[in-house]
Amino acid sequence: MPYAELDGLRLYYERAGRGDAEMLFVPGWCCDGTAFQPQFDHFAETSAVTALDLRGCGKSDRLPDGYAIPDLADDVIEFCQTVLDSTTTMAIPSTRPRNASHLNH
């Protein structure tokens, strides 16, 4: 079971496939990475894919605070910088576009 350690926070993720570009599936609030299982399985046949459980969801750590959209976006950015080794990452969020705009870093 792979976990990313980010400043004392453990985020669970699954990876499959291979390729130069990486697709990162980011579930909406209260969902885990399995929300994207059909897409994950499909794209893993031809690309590198990762499904992430955000803090407080799925198998990731549950902290007493830090659940504002900017906090979650910061987790995703740090996860990408720490775990993903590809030069190109496409984050596929399952959330409102206003919330996804926090990922524009």
Report on this model:
The protein is α/β, with parallel strands linked by helices. The chain has one domain (3-103): Alpha/Beta hydrolase fold, catalytic domain (Rossmann fold, 3-Layer(aba) Sandwich). Helix content is 25%, strand content 28%. It is built from three helices and five strands. The chain has helices at residues 37-44, 69-82, 97-100, and strands at residues 3-6, 9-16, 21-26, 48-52, 88-93. It has a five-stranded mixed sheet. β1 (3-6) and β2 form a beta hairpin. The protein is globular. Mean pLDDT is 85; it is low at 98-102.
Structural domains: how many:
1
| Helix-strand pattern | EEEHEHEH
What is the end-to-end distance? 28 Å
Question: How many DSSP H or I helices?
Answer: 3
Largest sheet: 5 strands, mixed
| CATH topology type | Rossmann fold
CATH homologous superfamily descriptor: Alpha/Beta hydrolase fold, catalytic domain
Q: In one word, what is the shape?
A: globular
The radius of gyration over CA amounts to: 13 Å
Strand fraction band?
Answer: 25-35%
Helix share, percent = 10-25%
Mean pLDDT: 85
* CATH architecture classification name: 3-Layer(aba) Sandwich
Instruction: Report the CATH C-level class.
Output: Alpha Beta
Secondary structural class: alpha/beta
Write the layout of secondary structure elements.
Blueprint: E1 3-6, E2 9-16, E3 21-26, H1 37-44, E4 48-52, H2 69-82, E5 88-93, H3 97-100
Parallel strand pairs: 3-4, 3-5
Antiparallel strand pairs: 1-2, 2-4
Q: How would you describe this structure in keywords?
A:
Rossmann fold; 25% helix; alpha/beta; 105 residues; 5 strands; five-stranded mixed beta sheet
